[in-house]
Specification:
The protein has 102 residues and is mainly alpha-helical. It has a two-stranded parallel sheet with strand order 1-2. The relative contact order is 0.15. The chain has three helices and two strands, in the order E-H-E-H-H. It is 50% helix and 8% strand. The longest helix is centred in the last third of the chain and has 25 residues.
Length: 102
């Protein structure tokens, strides 16, 4: 299992909570709005594990404000950043010749 998140302290707290039944939990600090970090982490995970079976994306801010107050940064995290992650995963699948669906 691989956990990613912006804050190391959150990753350290979450790892024991989600590791039930896992032999190994890897943690990587990652801001999904930073495409260079995404490429780095996807590459490292692929190199270490040889594949990625399932992706749960729970990154986001869920801005709790009127729609007219939602900023570009809010949209970037909630709507655009997940596309960056999927693009890099697709690239890793294609380059490896792996079979699967995203």
């Amino acid at each position: 299992m691989v956990l990613t998140g912006r804050r190391e302290e959150t990753l350290c707290k979450a790892a024991p909570e989600v590791s039930t039944g896992c032999t190994r939990v890897l943690r990587f600090q990652l801001d999904v709005c930073d495409t260079a970090q995404i490429q780095d982490v996807v590459g490292r995970v692929w190199q270490m594990l040889g594949r990625i079976d399932v992706l749960f994306n729970v990154a986001g801010t869920m801005a709790r404000k009127p729609a007219v107050g939602v900023t570009e940064a809010d949209y970037r995290v909630d709507a655009i950043a997940p596309g960056f992650v999927l693009t890099d995963l697709n690239r890793a699948f294609l380059e490896s010749g792996a079979q699967g669906r995203i």
